[in-house]
Input
Amino acid sequence: MSGLGPTLPAPGLDPSDAALEQAAEWFALLRSGEAAPADQGRWQRWLAAAAEHREAWRRVEAIGLRFGPLQGVADPTPAVEAWRHARRRGGRRSVLLGLVSLAGVGGLIALALQDSAWLQARLARSADHRSALGQVRELRLADGSQAWLATSSALDEDHDAHWRRVRLRAGEVLVRSAADPLRPLVVDTPHGRLRALGTRFTVRLEASADGTPLRSFVAVYEGAVELRPRDADGGLVVPAGRQAYFGGGRLPVLEPTDPAGEAWTRGLLIAQRLPLAEVARQLQRYRGGGLAVAPEVAGLPVFGSYPLTEPDRALAMLASVMPIRVRRAGPERVRIEARP
Amino acid sequence: MSVEAVSSVPIQALYRDHHGWLQDWLRRRLGDAGDAADLAQDAFLRLLVTPRPFEGRGAARAYLRAMGQGLCIDLWRRREIERAWLETLAAQPEAVAPSAEQQASVLQALQEIDAMLARLPTRAATAFVMAVGCQMSDREVAEAIGVSSRMVRKYVAQAMLHCLRLEPPPAGAGHPAAAPRLPAR
Output
């Protein structure tokens, strides 16, 4: 191995992606503890074959060097475990909340109380359509479009000769829009406007514990939706099979939709290796009260279908198939922790 | 207007137009004026090192805000790692604790590695860090995380390729993934 440092610039040579891929595979093989003696020779020949191979390998080494300080301590395991712990904590925060700081949560992950009594009372007074805590509601909008409201959601309708306008005020709605070429259907959230281009899509508004809107989410299952975030200049088209978060200072990035993302309209939570903390967060939306997850079990993967509209039964089902127990910690509060 | 023309907006003008609000925005988000000043400085430093063409003030503002958001998340992650590492050290008997210098360089390495692997699925990142950081064989990693050793090999290759593809090759704090993609009009 050559001893080139990580910061040395590559003079005018950018290895192809294929060369990078091969270099990564060589690295994985040679350090696996399972390489055959002949592999060394093959690797040498690969290196000799092209300058871009050597440059790719130089970059592999540069990345390997970043692990030097870890390799230099007598036992790097505690450091790696500390990193894993931080990644579980931090990853969840940047994914779930993105923006609000989680001051003073101590050892527990506090889940956003999107269903606070205060929010309910506020919605009850004024929204055109709403769903109760734990309920999934199917409804027909004034223009004939079909809609499903997830738990604790609220929707206003405002149609005129030019627009069919729906405003999501809380929670989540899945819309199957009726055809009306003359009047576009738009869904507004505090974070932007979604314009249906003949379509089935879901919109969710994520809020903090006190009901302050944090960001919005759209997933498109059929057709396409034009998204115009309020905090960005441009708009973009979200095609079927894609989803995006918008608002909260972040520009939307399209990701593939979760095929199980529509299951809530049937009252189901379908988990395919979903972390327990995320499952708990979704159940929390339907259950209300307090639902906390101990950090040591928060990352456990969950598989299977669970009844969203019967969250306590779902919790009991989880406890019967996973190494966890659900402990009552107060009148409405439960805590998921490792089974002793 | 050509890309050449817009890209020539000097950094001084960008700084004058955008530094003030960016720093305010970061301070509200972070709740700390010192951190906000550091990150605002960092954002402009990045623009200085890697200039970008902006079509107008709105585009520059949106870009800077997204970059600020990415930098905040980076800062939170670095703090989270620092906290976990300090907790780990506190729980260790003094006799086995690494020297102060080693403690600091381990922390820095963990933060850099985390930034490199931020966008990688957790399992692949974990396998990679265990394999390379602890110099464990595929079989040992496989036992530790409960997958086959073939899978570990795949994860290690996937993670290495992920790091190789980061543009430009990361050179310190933050991660290039924080650079936002601007929406297509």
